[in-house]
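note to self: dont lose this again. the chain is below, predicted strucutre after it. 147 aa total, dont forget to put it in the shared folder this time
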Amino acid sequence: MIYVLDTDHLSLYGRNHPTVIARLLAARVQLTTTAINVEEQLRGRLAQIAEAKDGSALSGAYQRLVETVMMLSEFNVLQYDTKSHEVYQALKRSRIRVGTQDLRIASITLAHDGVLLTRNLQDFEKVPGLSIQDWSVNETLSSDRLL
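---
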């Protein structure tokens, strides 16, 4: 089974969230995310650099960028490939009311028969067939489902 960390779980992992770290260690899973989540993480860090108002803020923003790049290097990154794009197009035709980036993340996860680890249950539960879990809580929620 492939467990795919969404952007929120990547951020929690990067901050050493005790529950996320403990569950990842206990499950002995390969750290996996998507190219879309990498994009979101890097866009956020680049925005912090652009918004920095002084040398101290800029220094801190660059430090967080490097830390994020180093963290992401620990992950297997699933690409947005032809199969993912086909799944994405099918989901778009279904008119699912989920943002473009989230729909791409879901498409990649579905194309790899994975389980998406996310706190964004409200949006991702709208995607048919997507298995989702929130590992930021101590026990598996009832939202662990295959729709």
